[in-house]
């Protein structure tokens, strides 16, 4: 399999590497790999298979079971997993690989060219995968760079997770996003253009955001005909719609027209949560962005004081909404709105997010599900990823303790496989394909 690192490719293009590209590509993936001796976690039931074998052929899992019941073919590459728990690859449903926030670091990126941004996004995708996140949903990127990156990963020209993308964020003029469209006709066109470019979701902003300097976060600026039309157009194309939202009024309006998912949910009231539960609407909380673990990050990127104050005041409401949503049984899929690998509270934003779900009322198993099979179900890809079972893609991570007993076990993540290829194995680096 030809999977040269994007930076290696760049170095070769610039004449920095002496070896030709082909020589820098990793060795062929063996036809069969056997992960032997670990405990395989069934994320549906929370049960584990001890001393297990996971047999992988090409990109897919072909057999899973106790060592005693599975004969490992002599040709298989054997990777020992003793003392580890094998879990499906993590999924993060609110990611921007090209993220720019207010502050010194964001200001430096103001004049970033598309080529520079694409390379930065590729580097972020690589770090995301190494942090154990094997599937992401991109919730707003610029000028189709996300679709280019997705294709590059598919061709082995860049390394990163599986990508579902909402393309560009569609908003009414003056809204919280870049692609402005007004009235049913313009909004239909905007949605269709994103779907044509490769979007498998449509993202709209139906209220302001924490980082906006104008407008009221609780306002509902879209008209009924605008909202109903864009949702209808997406659904007629088999594409789901998610809404950036901090306003209960706007949420109720969108629910009336069958919106599929809300991001953040900073200030949703009981009426909204009840309706979400009834309709099965998803909530992607991104709770890490408003909680103290993220303050270190905001200071690092030089966020202005007004931003930090907004984060702190939003944080209390955000936490209360999350607790209530969990108690009411609203569908929750993990998303961070920070880079999935971003340091947060001594771990990554992705793991910190899952820990916060448990603190807000989920069981440890439910928090693990919110990071694996729940997002897979939300994306509609749970037949192919999200579980360690025969027939699914071999997207597997390993940790040093049972995460169904303590979600913080995810902090010990030290092994990442995607599509049968080992990208990280801290205890046996020689098994990694480079
Ligand atoms: Zn976001």
Summarize the entry for a quick read.
The protein is an alpha/beta fold. The chain is built from 14 helices and 20 strands. It has 2 domains: 31-89 and 386-431, Urease, subunit C, domain 1 (Roll), CATH 2.30.40.10; 90-379, TIM Barrel (Alpha-Beta Barrel), CATH 3.20.20.140.
- Terminal CA distance reads 11 Å
Q: From the alpha-carbon coordinates, what is the Rg to the nearest angstrom? A: 22 Å
- Label the structural class: alpha/beta
Q: What fraction strand? A: 15-25%
**How many beta strands in the DSSP annotation?**
20
The global form is globular
Helix content: 25-40%
Number of helices: 14
**CATH architecture designation of the largest domain:** Alpha-Beta Barrel
Give the number of domains.
2
Low-confidence stretches: 1-27
- What is the average per-residue confidence, as pLDDT, rounded to a whole number? 90
């Amino acid at each position: 399999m030809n999977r040269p690192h994007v930076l290696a490719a760049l170095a070769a293009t610039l004449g920095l590497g002496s070896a030709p590209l082909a020589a820098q590509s990793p060795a062929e993936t063996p036809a069969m790999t056997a992960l032997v001796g670990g405990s395989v976690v069934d994320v549906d039931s929370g049960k584990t298979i001890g001393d297990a074998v996971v047999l992988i052929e090409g990109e897919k899992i072909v057999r899973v079971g106790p060592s005693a019941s599975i004969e490992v073919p002599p040709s298989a590459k054997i990777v020992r997993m003793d003392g580890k728990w094998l879990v499906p690859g993590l999924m993060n449903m609110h990611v921007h690989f090209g993220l720019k926030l207010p502050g010194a670091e964001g200001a430096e990126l103001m004049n970033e060219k598309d080529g520079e941004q694409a390379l930065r996004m590729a580097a972020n995708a690589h770090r995301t995968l190494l942090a154990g996140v094997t599937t992401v949903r991109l919730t707003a990127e610029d000028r189709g760079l996300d679709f280019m990156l997705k294709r590059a990963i598919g061709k082995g020209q860049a390394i990163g997770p599986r990508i579902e993308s909402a393309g560009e964020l569609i908003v009414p003029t003056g809204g919280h996003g870049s692609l402005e469209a007004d009235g049913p006709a313009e909004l239909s066109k905007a949605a269709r253009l994103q779907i044509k470019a490769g979007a498998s979701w449509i993202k709209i902003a139906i209220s302001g955001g924490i980082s906006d300097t104008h407008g009221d976060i609780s306002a509902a600026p879209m008209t009924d005909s605008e909202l109903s039309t864009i949702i209808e157009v997406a659904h007629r194309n088999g594409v789901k719609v998610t809404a950036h939202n901090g306003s209960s009024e706007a949420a109720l309006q969108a629910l009336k027209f069958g919106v599929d998912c809300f991001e953040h949910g900073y200030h949703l009231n009981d009426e909204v949560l009840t309706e979400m539960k009834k309709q099965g609407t998803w909530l992607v909380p991104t709770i890490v962005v408003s909680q103290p673990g993220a303050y270190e990050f905001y200071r690092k990127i030089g966020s202005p004081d007004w931003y930090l104050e907004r984060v702190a005041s939003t944080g209390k409401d955000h936490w209360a909404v999350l607790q209530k949503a969990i108690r009411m049984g609203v569908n929750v899929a993990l998303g961070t709105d920070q880079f999935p690998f971003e340091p947060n509270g001594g771990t990554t934003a992705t793991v910190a997010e899952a820990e916060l779900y448990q603190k807000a009322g989920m069981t440890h198993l439910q928090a693990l599900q919110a990071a694996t099979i729940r997002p897979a179900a939300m994306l509609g890809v749970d037949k192919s990823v999200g579980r360690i079972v025969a027939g699914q893609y071999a997207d597997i991570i390993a940790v040093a303790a049972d995460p169904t007993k303590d979600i913080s076990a995810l902090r010990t993540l030290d092994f990442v496989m995607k599509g049968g290829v080992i990208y990280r194995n801290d205890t046996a680096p020689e098994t990694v394909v480079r």
